[in-house]
Amino acid sequence: MTCAKTLMMVLAGGGLTGAAQAPGHIWCVSDEDVSGESSGTFFQPFSGCTAGAATSCTINTEARYDRIAREKSVPINRTTGQIRVAGGEPLQLTAGVRCRADSPPGGPQDWGARLVVTSLFPAGQAARAPVRQSG
């Protein structure tokens, strides 16, 4: 059996977006030896801004505390995304770096990189018309 709860508050305006997810908690109790018991608290705030019509910059954390192992993980991510058109289809290309403010013993350390490609599906009329990149 797994139980979870979460609450998110998002504020946006003037090209800035910020969100704070209320600390959530997931717990699982299983009779199977494979998955066992888990109990974790997490917090994932983020802040972002847009530059021009097609570029976004964000910073966030994905902090988690394992209550059974008494270990915490606090990665901090910084990303920049750009909307581009490839083959007539809009995509968001995102690149970023990750550092670890805290990590459990034997867990990931130091820096990391992130590359993401996201397909965008415009709603309404824009979905039926071909997308053209200006400039």
Can you give a write-up of this model?
With 135 residues, the chain is an all-beta fold. It has one domain. It is built from one helix and eleven strands. It has one helix at 125-128; strands at 2-5, 8-13, 16-21, 24-28, 38-43, 46-51, 55-61, 63-66, 71-86, 89-102, 111-119. Strands 1, 2, 3, 4, 5, 6, 7, 8, 9, 10 and 11 form an eleven-stranded antiparallel beta sheet that branches. Strand 2 (8-13) and strand 3 form a beta hairpin. It is elongated. It starts with a strand and ends in a 7-residue tail after the last helix. Residues 125-129 have low confidence and may be disordered.
Walk me through the topology.
Layout: E1 2-5, E2 8-13, E3 16-21, E4 24-28, E5 38-43, E6 46-51, E7 55-61, E8 63-66, E9 71-86, E10 89-102, E11 111-119, H1 125-128
Antiparallel strand pairs: 1-4, 2-3, 3-6, 4-5, 5-8, 6-7, 7-9, 8-9, 9-10, 10-11
